Amino acid sequence: MGAYILRRLLLVIPTLLGIMIINFALVQFVPGGPIEQIIAQMEGGGDVFESFAGGGSEVSQGGDSDYIGARGLPPEFIAELEREFGFDKPPLERFLSMMWNYMRFDFGESYFRSISVIDLVLEKMPVSITLGLWSTLLAYLISIPLGIRKAVRDGSSFDTWTSGAIIVGYAIPGFLFAILLIVLFAGGSYWRIFPLRGLTSDNWESLSLIGKLLDYFWHIALPVLASTISAFATLTLLTKNSFLDEIKKQYVMTARAKGLPERRVLYGHVFRNAMLIVISGFPALFIGVFFGGSLIIETLFSLDGLGRLGFEAAVARDYPVVFGTLFAFSLLGLIVGIVTDLTYVLIDPRIDFERRG
């Protein structure tokens, strides 16, 4: 197993390098860099894309061609901006310098916020941890028992109406379900039971420990429910199908023929094999919800998390934030893939990736 883990770790390097090369190369052809953003604001254009809508010359990240909207600014000022942002260097030199800094986990500072990328991510982390952790746990706590129940009672009326409810839940987008929750329970048109913004109340610091916990869960109830609905539907059907596949196997029929109680057959024999796919996918599911935070849900509930951070950085062309978070999250995602394989082995020691290799 050690050789397999070593091979996977060595594959992380070229995979991560490929991700960064592709994204860095694509950015070179995207108009409206950070310098153009600043110039557009100084010229009163509001946004650089408004200048493109009216036509004009092509924009590059370097200093060889004129910037749209920069005709009234001194060339020395434009050159100083390029030096400040590092765009006076060739793209290859900028990429190599960036990767060298990232290898030392130096992600630099945001262009427009005067704060390091790490501090900026840590500032947004509580929201993403809240949505990712509680949404994943809630999905598993509901989906696994429900999926097992549906598998045991396959074809019954219970299975039929729960499948209908699951399909409806899967078909409803998370943001639409969030709007429904706001309308019903957050003062939209009916009841004002839950708050609409933030993770805590203004007087959170003055509350007791129990009061802080209750206030925290009071605030996260609606956004967590909105984030859980799609994962809940998928996970329930996956659990049911896994159980159905195992129940039909010979060893289950043998265990029943020996007179073992049904509960022992299900939870002593079937559960371990059926849950292999479901439980081993927990790390990947958590990371997916954690870093794929819904921009719309965060906006609807006035939560400032990684979803909004990524969107705002992309719109503002805040490249240190865009590439820094891309590098860190891609690296973490690749490591989680290895952890997922180890989880397979932990749950079922019969699996040997090294022998397969």
Give the tags.
357 residues; MetI-like fold; 16 helices; membrane; transmembrane; transmembrane helix; transport
Give me the secondary-structure topology.
Blueprint: H1 2-27, H2 34-42, H3 48-53, H4 75-85, H5 91-103, H6 117-152, H7 157-171, H8 174-185, H9 209-247, H10 250-257, H11 262-280, H12 282-291, H13 295-300, H14 306-316, H15 319-347, H16 353-356
Give the CATH architecture of the largest domain.
Orthogonal Bundle
CATH class of the largest domain: Mainly Alpha
Topology pattern, helix = H, strand = E: HHHHHHHHHHHHHHHH
- Determine the strand fraction and express it as a percent band: under 5%
CATH topology of the largest domain: MetI-like fold
Please tally the helical runs, counting DSSP H or I stretches of 4 or more residues.
16
| Overall domain count | 2
Q: Summarize the main sheet.
A: none
What is the gyration radius calculated from CA atoms? Answer: 26 Å
- Stretches where pLDDT is under 50 for at least 5 consecutive residues are 48-65
Percent helix range: over 70%
Mean pLDDT: 79
Distance between the termini: 10 Å
CATH superfamily of the largest domain: MetI-like
**What is the chains' assembly state?**
single chain
Instruction: Give the number of DSSP strands.
Output: 0
Structural class: mainly alpha
The coarse overall form would be globular
3D structure, described in words:
The chain has 16 helices and no strands. It is an all-alpha fold. The protein has 2 domains: 59 residues, no CATH class; 239 residues, MetI-like (MetI-like fold, Orthogonal Bundle). Helix 9 crosses helix 11. The chain is globular, with a radius of gyration of 26 Å. The chain starts with a helix and ends with a helix. About 5% of the residues have low confidence. It is a multi-pass membrane protein. This is Oligopeptide transport system permease protein OppB. Keywords: Cell inner membrane, Cell membrane, Membrane, Transmembrane, Transmembrane helix, Transport.
